[in-house]
Amino acid sequence: MNALLGAALGYAARGIPVYPVHWPRPTPGGASLACSCRQRQACDRPAKHPLVRHGIHDATTDPTQLERWWSRWPHANPGLATGIVFDALDVDGPAGLAALRQLTRTANLRLPGPLVATGGGGWHHWFTPTGLGNRPPRGLAHVDWRGIGGCVLAPPSRHVSGGSYHWLRALDEAPVPEVPAALRALLDPEPPTTTRPTDPTRSADPDRPAALGHPYGRRVLADELAALGRATPGQRNRTLNRCAFKVYRYVAGGVLDEEDVTAAFTEAALTIGLDPAEIGRTLASARTAGLANPRTVPVGPGPRTEEDGS
Ligand SMILES: [Zn+2]
């Protein structure tokens, strides 16, 4: 089997949505590589932009669709949607590595999880989903975070420089770890210096959580987004309803922000291929039911995703 298709099917089997990305193609005469798109050498994101119209929103775990794509484009690079099964710390070349090393030294961090060497001379560290979107970690130059709505190229993608993406520690060799607290702290928004006067429903109660919510709530959100990512075709809409209901209950309890939750579920549901109109209806119904059944942060150990077998 085509190694690129084989890899794409392997990621999909882990619940990671995959989509096809342009690839590096030899220029006429074969002296160098250029993007497989019509722009060729003029392309500003060579071998990094999607072949499908909606990019990560077209990403899927459906093997039949992946086989169809890779039979049409056998050289396509596999792009993976982040934020569902994993988030990625994207370290851009030596400058990014230097910034990250400084953090790991001062915070005495180890990063033992899956690690990709990118074809362009960078690295991707994989972590369990945080529920956060794409953002640069504060104070780490040349380092980025890929979460909800984000994507990374995965091995064995090829880079226009001629290099290829490969595992330094593969998924079979290392479990995907949680983000260490010292790194996670750089991803959270800075504490606000003033309350938000524009929103009268928020400013009155000093116990009301900030926009991104209580850490417990964010864990619940991340767990439920991961459960949604694992839903099998045919169960996705039901799973969206069930997972979103659970999370909206914490919105009702003041633990999470409603807009953030709706945006996160919308993005994740689009990524696994649900129809936008269907997503809107399902989330509206889950929201009504969830808001009527508030839950707050329990005393005791961290959240657990209840797999209720449906
Ligand atoms: Zn291109």
Question: What is the typical, i.e. mean, pLDDT?
Answer: 88
Outline, from the CA principal axes? globular
Oligomer: single chain
Give the helix proportion (percent range): 25-40%
- Residues in β-strands, percent: 5-15%
Task: Please summarize the sheet with the most strands.
Answer: 5 strands, antiparallel
| Tally of separate helices | 8
Question: Which ions, cofactors or small ligands are bound in this entry?
Answer: zinc ion
Please give the alpha-carbon distance between the first and last residues. Answer: 34 Å
* Class derived from helix and strand content: alpha+beta
H/E element string?
Answer: HEEEHEEHEEEEEHHHHH
Could you tell me the radius of gyration in angstroms? 20 Å
Query: Main sheet: which strands, in order across?
Result: 8-5-7-6-10
Number of strands: 10
Poorly predicted residue ranges: 195-211, 305-310
Structural description of this entry:
The protein has 310 residues and is of the alpha+beta class. Helices cover 34% and strands 13% of the residues. It has helices at 3-13, 63-72, 93-106, 181-187, 215-229, 236-252, 258-271, 276-291; strands spanning 18-21, 24-26, 33-35, 77-81, 87-91, 115-117, 123-127, 143-146, 151-153, 166-169. The strands form 3 sheets. It has a 5-stranded antiparallel sheet with strand order 8-5-7-6-10. Strands 1-4-9 form a 3-stranded antiparallel sheet. Strands 2-3 form a two-stranded antiparallel ribbon. The chain is globular. It starts with a helix and ends in a 19-residue tail after the last helix. Bound molecules: zinc ion (ZN).
Short description:
The chain is an alpha+beta fold. It is built from eight helices and ten strands. It has a five-stranded antiparallel sheet with strand order 8-5-7-6-10.
